[in-house]
Amino acid sequence: MKVLILGVNGFIGHHLTARILKETDWKIYGMDLSAERLGKLADHPRFDFVEGDISINKEWIEYHIKKADVILPLVAIATPKVYVERPLSVFELDFEENLRIVRQVHRYGKRIVFPSTSEVYGMCGDKEFDEENSPLVLGPIAKERWIYSCCKQMLDRVIWAYGRQGLAFTLFRPFNWIGPRLDSIETAKEGSSRVVTQFIADLYLGKPIQVVDGGEQRRCFTYVDDGIAGLMKVLANKNGCANGGIFNIGNPANDHSVRELAEMLRELYAKHPRNRGKKVPPIIEVNSKQFYGEGYQDIQTRTPSIRRAKEILGWEPKVSMKTALKKTLDAFLAEADASRAGK
Asked: Theoretical Cys-Cys bridge with 95: which of 6, 67, 124, 151, CB 3.0 to 4.6 Å?
């Protein structure tokens, strides 16, 4: 099988590439702005990497859509601070650029595996979010944070509609995947990283951990190895089991509030060999308007039903919250120390 991965150097992309090259005989074509996370993988004989931008290198992408069997367009802006500060950038990249790719996949009769998001459920009131029945509830127009969710939901609907016209597709919805190389110390400094690495960076830099609006919002955190295992089953598509399906890929057992997340990371950091005996920064509360701006609105719960993934894909997560956080923390600290040592 030949797989085209756009955004191959990203968090999901580089972990998926490593798993494919290790466990299968599949060929990978990959594009991204750099190969920093890929390391030696970029030289693998079954991996053709090109440094490029999906909004610029359009001919290369179309050519490789024709060559590939499966296309994964993983390029997207996926950080709430950017949704609020640059909503049009989110729309242009997350929706417009990906729509062109969806149309080309349909035109050339290929299969698309599209990364939807847990955020499409928005402020859904269901205890567990079900792919087939839960309502997708977004906030008011003036709250720009919803533009990401809206872009992803619209593409889900477009892909589903193309499926009526013969497009082979699967939609998968990651629920807060975490793990090594989720973000770098540099992106965390900019305030553009995801919550886990933002908290770790605050600890590393000796800054207070800032929990927004008390940190009562709850999330289900999924270790990346578990997530990739589910995605591999989607790609393998044994007996066509994933065709036309939508799958939540998350870990309901790792359901914690953001404040609990901060407390767990703070405890792990205090026990880390590089930090024993040193003072650990405190946890403080900040207002969401102060932290994100007027256009922010939060989601209080985000718990997936993974019934479909279990029954249809034969997948379920295995990694506990404590193990997932420890592995993420250890990798981030080692990378940050190495980065500083190299300067």
From this structure: 151
* Residue 258, burial from CB neighbour count under 10 angstroms (0-12, 13-18, 19+): buried
Distance CA 73, CA 155 (A): 12
Judge whether 258 and 212 are in contact, CB under 8 Å. Answer: yes
The residues pairing with 137 across neighbouring beta strands, listed in sequence order, are: 122
pLDDT digit string (tens) for 168-189? 999 999 999 999 999 876 666 5
CATH of 2-178+222-252+303-317, picked from 3.40.50.150, 3.30.300.20, 3.40.50.300, 3.40.50.720, is 3.40.50.720
For residue 331, give every residue at least 6 positions away whose Cβ sits within 8 Å of its Cβ, in sequence order, or none. 179, 180, 181
Domain ranges of the chain: 2-178+222-252+303-317
Strand 2-6 with 70-73, pairing: parallel
Radius of gyration of the chain (CA): 20
Residue 302 and residue 118: Cα distance in Å, rounded?
A: 7
pLDDT tens for each residue of 236-270: 999 999 999 999 999 999 999 999 999 999 999 99
Give the residue from 269, 285, 293, 300 showing the smallest Cα distance to 210: 285
Please give the model's pTM, rounded to 2 decimal places: 0.94
Give CA 133 to chain center in angstroms. Answer: 23
Average pLDDT, whole number, for the chain? 94
Count of residues in the chain: 343
Q: For residue 311, what are the contacts with CB-CB under 8 A and spacing of at least 6?
A: none
Average pLDDT rounded to a whole number, residues 188-195: 64
Which pair of structure tokens corresponds to residue 175? 């629920």
Relative to beta strand 255-257, strand 218-220 is: antiparallel
Cross-strand bridge partners of residue 28:
3, 47
